[in-house]
Amino acid sequence: MFDANIDRSYVTTYYKRKFNPTRAAEKDITIGDVAHALSLICRANGHLKIFFSVAQHSINCALEARERGLSQKIQLDCLLHDASEAYIGDVITPLKIQLSAYKDYERELQATVLNALDVEPPNETEEKAIKEIDSCMLYHEFKLLHGDLLFKTEPEIHISICESEVPHAQVEAQFIQLYRELKTY
Q1: Contact criterion met (CB below 8 Å) for 53 and 35
Q2: What SUPFAM superfamilies does the record point to (predicted)?
């Protein structure tokens, strides 16, 4: 039975935080919730050959940054570049482009998440490297997991992308382990 008196202004996270998406508070953000949620959100709204999570994409971005010889800070930034999606979901790019208010909100939430995790936001140079790696992973993930070539020129990649499904708990653990390793920069 529906109870009209229930407070529906928040989402209870996996680690039992009451997260209000319209009033994001740092106290309600944890790396455990970020890793857990991202490990269960499928890239491309599920339009891939296998389940491939946002967390896997983020891990790949961090590993690609490492293989390119980029700093631990940029590797961490790559790992966390989609962290806000743990709280508001992964809106597909063609729609996100049309939603300027959403993009602004996502940017603000991302800043709140980084602050909650005590991570300095990326500067302009770091942001450029993150975007380049993110686009590279997008291209290669879609090529491998969808058969689609998104760009005319194939970006150079330095890692291998896993072609088989990985249990979300394993991805979650890898995300947290990599976060802890990189947080020492």
Answers
A1: no
A2: HD-domain/PDEase-like
Q: The tokens of 169 are what? A: 């708990």
Question: Of 185, 172, 182, which is closest to residue 34 (Cα–Cα)?
Answer: 172
Whole-angstrom distance, CA of residue 173 vs CA of residue 32 = 9
Q: Count the domains in the chain.
A: 1
CATH of the domain at 90: 1.10.3210.10
Residue 160 has pLDDT above 80, yes or no: yes
Burial 140-172 (b: 16+ CB within 10 A, else e): bbbbbbeeeeeeeeeeebebebeeeebebeebb
Q: How much is the pLDDT for 92?
A: 82
Condensed to tens digits (0 to 9), the pLDDT of residues 14-25 reads: 999 999 988 999
Q: Is residue 45 part of a domain?
A: yes
Compute the C-alpha angle 19/52/130, nearest 5°: 70
Tell me the pTM: 0.93
- Helix, coil or strand: residue 5: coil
Polymer length in residues for the chain: 185
Dihedral angle of Cα 40, 103, 122, 54, to the nearest 10 degrees: 20
Other CB atoms within 10 Å distance of the CB of residue 49: 12
